[in-house]
Amino acid sequence: MRYVLTSQVLSVTQVEQEAQKVGATEINVIPRFGQVYCSLQPNQVSRLPKAIKVRDVGVVRSSQQIVVEEPLTIQLASAPPAEALNMYNVFEQLRQSFQPPLTGQGLTVAVLDSGVRKTHETLENAVIYEANFSSSSTPSDVFGHGIGIAFLIAGLFSLYSGVAPGARIMNIKVLEDNGEGTEEALVLGIDHVCGLVAGAKARGLLPSDEDYPNTLNLSIGAPDDGDDNNAVRVACRTAWRDYGLQVIAAVGNDGPKPSTVEMPACDPDVIGVGGIESNNFIVASFSSRGPTREGAIKPDIVCWSSSILVASHRGNSEYDMKSGTSFATPVLAGVDGLMWELGRRVYGQSWRATWHDVLAYAPYYCVKPQNAPVDKDNDYGYGLPAINVMVNQVMGAGPATGVSTVVEAAAPLMMLVVLGTMLKGGLGA
User: Fold this and answer.
1) Which CATH architecture has domain 2-57?
2) Sign of CA pseudo-dihedral 175, 181, 185, 189
């Protein structure tokens, strides 16, 4: 059996030594998180000191809807199918409202998932780094999940682009080719990205340098066990508190039952993203609901999550439609890139605001249906960020006919920028 060993009393080195004493094998030590992974027999576990907490290494899975939708046969020169939400149509007018256009340049997102097919026509220049913590022989996406996440953040090709096509992707493969992986692989991936941040800082890089990761996109999860010392949750908290990596995670697809929000989205330091239907403002039936096992209200935010157009793993010019909170999560990551780029233009390179800053005043600029609770609730969280005004303009009222109309529609996003600057005390102003 594979276990993770931790202790509030012993150092990680001492824990490793105790594991060695009882004959543990395949020992993997992660000092950054105070965790030791190893293989043990039951009689060996019983001989460990009581000061060591022993947990089974659990399984994590992709957070896409169980039913995979049919592949799309499309022509690149044509408009996307009416039933498929195309992030290019939603966000292109916002990006083009500014000169030079916003692209999300400066944002680097580590996608911890099933891998990314970096040769896809939408991602040829987006993937700048790869690491493989699965047992697969390839860092590419064989399952058909991670590529869709990467596309929604940074895809770029004709009519089919993600939210922030100037952003960069770090492909950190932690899931096997069947869409499942271990908590150990996920923690190793998080640890690796933290190391990349430490290395970037040591080299004197700015957070906007492409080799400096800013965000962890975790469109994966596991059932919440109610343990705030869960190894994955500890890794996520450390990534945020010690390395400044904002962690954005899907809440899962076990709704509408209550208390189904997955780990690590259940953690207070993780931005938990739920899903709404893409053609209306109703929380998706599959989107997991709070409260968490510890009684916290989740999700934090909701975003579009059904019938999303994404790049496919099947070929370099293939596309699919997918649903699930997995695909709501990278939209938030991409919007962060646009917001951050605009803020840097106005206030300088030192300006930075994250979704953690946004949530501090979320009730003022997140919106919900009229029948939803005003305060944060276990279906919608704080609601949909106010960029939905722009979405309604494009998807509901039709394309804007002038720059002034588009800027007016994009005003909620600009409000986030101003608010973030206030929260940061006007850094760089």
Assistant:
1) 2-Layer Sandwich (3.30)
2) positive
Predicted local confidence at residue 407, as pLDDT: 36
Q: Which residue positions in the chain have pLDDT lower than 50?
A: 66-69, 77, 388-429
Give the list of residues 6+ apart from residue 32 with CB closer than 8 angstroms, or none.
191, 194, 195, 238
CATH number 3.30.460.90 is the correct assignment for the domain at 61-423: no
Domain boundaries along the sequence of the chain: 2-57, 61-423
CA distances from 1 to 28, 39, 41, 49, 297 (A): 14, 5, 6, 18, 34
In degrees and rounded to multiples of 5, residue 336 shows phi and psi of: -55, -40
Quote the pLDDT of residue 415: 39
Q: Is 251 in contact with 261 (CB distance < 8 Å)? A: yes
Q: Whose CA is closest to 317, among 137, 83, 151?
A: 151
Per-residue confidence (pLDDT) for residue 360, from 0 to 100 = 82
Question: What's the 3-state SS for the chain?
Answer: CEEEEECCCCCHHHHHHHHHHCCCEEEEEEHHHCEEEEECCHHHHCCCCCCCEEEECCEEEECCCCCCCCEECCCCCCCCCCCCECHHHHHHHHHHCCCCCCCCCCCEEEEEECCCCCCCCCCCCCEEEEEECCCCCCCCCCCCCHHHHHHHHHCCCCCCCCCCCCCEEEEEECCCCCCEEEHHHHHHHHHHHHHHHHHHHHCCCCCCCCCCCCEEEECEEECCCCCCCCHHHHHHHHHHHHHCCEEEEECCCCCCCCCCCCECCCCCCCEEEEEECCCCCCECCCCCCCCCCCCCCCCCEEEECCCEEEECCCCCCCEEEECCHHHHHHHHHHHHHHHHHHHHHHHCCCCCCCHHHHHHCHHHCEECCCCCCCCCECCCECCEECCHHHHHHHHCCCCCCCHHHHHHHCHHHHHHHHHHHHHCCCCCC
- pLDDT on residue 387: 61
Give the model's pLDDT for residue 78.
54
> pTM for this one?
0.89
Which residues, in sequence order, are CB contacts of 159 under 8 Å at separation 6+?
76, 77, 78, 79, 80, 86, 88, 89
What region, left, alpha or beta, does residue 239 occupy, with left being phi > 0 and alpha being psi -120 to 50 degrees?
A: alpha
Q: How many residues does the chain have?
A: 429
Token pair of 179, please? 């869409």
Residue 356: Cβ within 10 Å count: 15
